[in-house]
Specification:
- It is a single chain.
- This protein has helices spanning 2-9, 19-32, 45-52, 56-68, 89-106, 111-132, 135-150, 158-172, 176-189, 199-217, 221-237, and strands at residues 72-75, 81-84.
- The protein is mostly helical and 245 residues long.
- The chain has 11 helices and 2 strands; from the N terminus they run ααααββααααααα.
- The radius of gyration is 24 Å and the shape is elongated.
- A hairpin with a 5-residue loop joins strand 1 and strand 2 (81-84).
- The longest helix has 22 residues, at 111-132.
- A two-stranded antiparallel sheet has the order 1-2.
């Protein structure tokens, strides 16, 4: 009786994948295992269909799904083909940028929601930067602040410098996933574009940036957190437009 009960409860089944899913899983596996590396070109579609013994339609459905996942990309033309996408923390950031951008465009999420998440992530990022920053990280941050001091508020470089400043802090944290998310979300929200950016606001922002860098230089996480919270609070008070793009 016990043997019968054991036989009934034993799990030997496994989900049977459709042909398209089998192709997708196999190609994904070869990429994530390193068998196929960044920049490698996949065999031609005719050859892949033959190898998997599936139709061209089934193969193309699998390739489209892998493209959506950011694992491969297609270059059209006689010298093109399907190539393995770079799979590292930078590609993670690209996927986040594309996804957030599309959701904002569609109106599925609000600008304020994205900005709020970014701001929450910047606090642990600056604390880690204060603990882990290198001399090179510090010099790059100081250079950005120097360039911001020289720039006028209508300088087209201002938004890019602001994006670089916050991205570099996240990079200095030493956490590549955190860096990818902060950089991607900052890229999509670009706070400077939504500021009532008068000369006074510009000067205050640069002073706040300098205070953040000074705290990172002193390797003082508490001071760095206080400085960036003051900065982010100031930005929220001077946001002129709350719209999704």
């Amino acid at each position: 009786m016990a043997d019968r009960e054991s036989a009934r409860s034993r799990v030997i089944g496994q989900k049977v994948l459709r042909p398209r899913e089998q192709v997708e899983e196999r190609i994904r596996g070869t990429i994530l295992s390193g068998e196929l590396k960044s920049g490698d070109i996949l065999p031609p579609e005719v050859e892949l269909a033959r190898q998997f013994n599936v139709s061209r339609t089934t193969l193309r459905e699998a390739l489209r799904s892998l493209t959506t996942q950011g694992l491969i990309y297609k270059i059209p033309g006689s010298r093109g083909g399907n190539f393995v996408q770079s799979v590292d923390h930078r590609s993670l950031g690209s996927v986040v940028i594309d996804s957030v951008h599309n959701l904002l465009k569609l109106g599925s999420i609000e600008f304020a929601e994205v900005a709020e998440v970014r701001q929450h992530l910047e606090v642990p990022a600056v604390r880690l930067a204060a603990a882990n920053r290198s001399a090179e990280d510090l010099e790059l941050l100081r250079d950005i602040v120097r360039r911001q001091k020289r720039a006028s508020v209508d300088d087209p470089e201002v938004p890019k410098l602001d994006e670089q400043f916050h991205s570099l802090i996240a990079q200095a944290s030493g956490n590549r996933v955190l860096h990818s998310f902060v950089a991607a979300l900052h890229h999509e929200t670009e706070p400077v574009h939504y500021l009532d950016l008068s000369p006074e606001v510009g000067r205050a922002t640069v002073r706040q940036h300098k205070a953040i860098v000074d705290a990172i230089a002193d390797r003082d996480p508490d001071a760095a957190e206080a400085a960036i919270i003051e900065h982010l609070t100031y930005l929220r008070k001077h946001i002129a437009v709350h719209v999704s793009r």
